[in-house]
Write a structure and sequence with these properties.
By secondary structure, the protein is an alpha/beta fold. The protein has 3 domains: 10-46; 70-273, 3-Layer(aba) Sandwich (Rossmann fold), CATH 3.40.50; 291-445, Ribosomal Protein S5, domain 2 (2-Layer Sandwich). It has 10 helices and 21 strands. The protein has helices at residues 2-10, 77-83, 103-113, 128-137, 152-162, 187-204, 328-341, 367-379, 405-414, 441-445, and strands at 14-16, 22-23, 39-41, 92-97, 119-123, 144-148, 166-170, 207-213, 232-237, 244-252, 260-266, 269-272, 291-298, 301-313, 321-324, 349-355, 387-389, 392-393, 399-400, 419-422, 434-437. The strands form 5 sheets. A 9-stranded mixed sheet has the order 6-5-7-8-4-9-10-11-12, sandwiched between helices. The longest helix is centred in the middle third of the chain and has 18 residues, at 187-204. The model is unreliable at 1-9 (pLDDT under 50). The protein binds thymidine-5'-diphosphate and magnesium ion. Magnesium ion binds at residues 103-104, 125, 170. Thymidine-5'-diphosphate binds next to helix 3 and helix 4.
Length: 449
């Protein structure tokens, strides 16, 4: 009793409706999120209730529950790859991404294609006409029922009554819970909405796909704060001007993260990228000096890409270097190594580097291809079109080992390369491809014809 009597002085009495920060007294502005007039008083005594003795919960045998869960195929090979074979009934998947990247389009297509049919699409952002227009663009959406609603109670009640295989909520930022203060899209509202929808999914066994925006300034209102509440988090990325879209698995309670799905957006909606890991390679073209192909890994997924370099004697004292799709500082380092360790004189040359196909390459295993593309352009020598180059380049000019070499060589073989230059000898390369190991960058440069 004495303890309870002491508590009120030390416990927070006001909470910010925007970010949830707690304060002992009322203030005009929240110091945490800088929102004005957002502090609300906690209901009297809500934090002071003494603990009640609990009732024992039901325990389960893990061995009995070990059966692999059923999966609902999404109708996309690339989406299923990221999900790990499909959506698990009763699970909640969060699909995040920048505005306009194609989240609503992909969500509607998944709803239309979901294995077993019958899905419910709850739209809080667009009118029925707008969704119908999109449905017409993507072709058939016959099995999809539409609910245009932002009220959380109505959405939950409709999901429970209709009991679809999949319910899409587009977007969590528009859903409003009347029992919670704050405007729709505020962290408190979004958290409350996701918590209710997760509970609904678990209780009813309906799979739920939530669409969420990532805003430039705010991880606060974005799906980031929700990542721990849901089962699977996917991010759709891509350049709005290009047609390529990357679907990245950030969290997955039913599969591996680090998977990458390759999709393409055209006038008829989203589609699996036809060539998969070869999508960034423009077929076997006659190789020009300054081109080198490599297999990078984005997460777990190997991708064949072409690195292109152009070097020209600089007309000015200070040579220009630009890199697109590759880190500029890394390019400077590789140029220094080329000059000092491999005796390729690039110091007085402008260097322009490009990762073809608009992809961004952050993988150190692309170093060797970048260095050989530059050396090829500078020396006017080529690398065979059917040759891929894999390896990290160290400051001493040594070619260093890279992760997932087996997977990379396998992808190179699948992409039609017949020779792979690697940091270490492959004991058993896949059929149709031979490996040649190089120890130094100088040795690799001498392979240019
Ligand atoms: P949308 O799915 O509305 O994006 P988000 O929900 O992530 O904000 O789609 C945005 C863009 O996609 C829009 O500018 C038009 C384009 N689009 C296509 O290119 N093809 C299509 O079939 C559809 C439906 C949209
Ligand atoms: Mg949308």
């Amino acid at each position: 009793m004495a303890v309870a009597a002491l508590r009120p002085a030390t416990r927070a009495r006001f909470t910010c409706a925007e970010c949830g920060a707690a304060y002992p007294k009322w203030e005009g502005r929240c110091q945490a999120c800088e929102a004005w007039n957002s502090l609300v008083e906690d209901p009297a005594g809500s934090r002071l209730t003494p603990a009640q003795p609990g009732v024992a919960g039901t325990v389960h045998s893990l061995a009995k529950a070990a059966a692999a869960p059923e999966r609902l195929g999404s109708g996309f090979v690339e989406v299923d790859r990221v999900l790990g074979a499909g959506i698990v009934p009763g699970s909640v998947v969060l699909l995040g991404g920048d505005p306009g990247v194609g989240k609503s389009t992909l969500a509607l297509q998944i709803a239309a294609r979901i294995a077993g049919g019958a899905s419910l699409y709850c739209s809080g952002e667009e009118s029925a006409e707008q969704v119908a227009l999109r449905a017409r663009r993507i072709g058939s959406a016959a099995g999809v029922e539409l609910l245009v609603e932002t009220d959380l109670d109505t959405i939950v009640a409709t999901v429970e009554a209709a009991h679809p295989r999949l319910a899409v909520v587009d977007s969590v930022q528009t859903v409003y819970d009347a029992a919670v203060s704050g405007v729709a899209g505020s962290p408190a509202q979004v958290r409350a909405a996701v918590a209710r929808l997760v509970a609904t999914a678990k209780r009813s066994g309906v799979a739920v796909l939530l669409v969420g925006h990532v805003t430039k300034e705010g991880a606060i209102a974005g799906p980031r704060t929700l990542e721990h509440m849901v089962d699977v988090v996917l991010y759709l990325e891509g350049d709005r001007l290009g047609d390529q879209r990357l679907l990245r698995g950030v969290k997955n309670r039913f599969g591996s993260t680090g998977e990458l799905g390759l999709l393409a957006m055209d006038a008829g909606g989203m589609a699996d990228m036809a060539a998969g890991g070869r999508a960034f390679l423009d077929g076997p073209v006659a190789t020009l000096p300054g081109s080198a192909r490599t297999v990078t890994c984005d997460g777990l997924r190997p991708l064949a890409v072409e690195m292109q370099a152009l070097t020209m004697r600089s007309p000015y004292g200070l040579p220009r270097r630009t890199a697109s799709g590759f880190e500029l500082n890394r390019l400077h380092v590789l140029l220094a190594v080329l000059e000092k360790r491999a005796r390729v004189a690039v110091g007085d040359h402008d260097v322009f580097l490009n990762a073809a196909g608009g992809i961004r390459v952050d993988d150190p295993a692309a170093d060797l291809a970048v260095a050989l593309a530059i050396a090829g352009s500078r020396l006017d020598r080529t690398l065979s079109a059917s040759c891929a180059v894999i390896g990290e380049v160290g400051l001493g000019g040594e070619v260093r080992r890279v992760g997932r070499l087996d997977a990379r060589v396998a992808e190179a073989a699948a992409a039609g390369f017949d020779l792979v230059i690697t940091p270490e000898q492959q004991a058993r390369p896949p059929a149709g491809v031979s490996c040649r190991s190089v120890a130094t960058l100088g040795e690799a440069v001498r392979l240019l014809a």
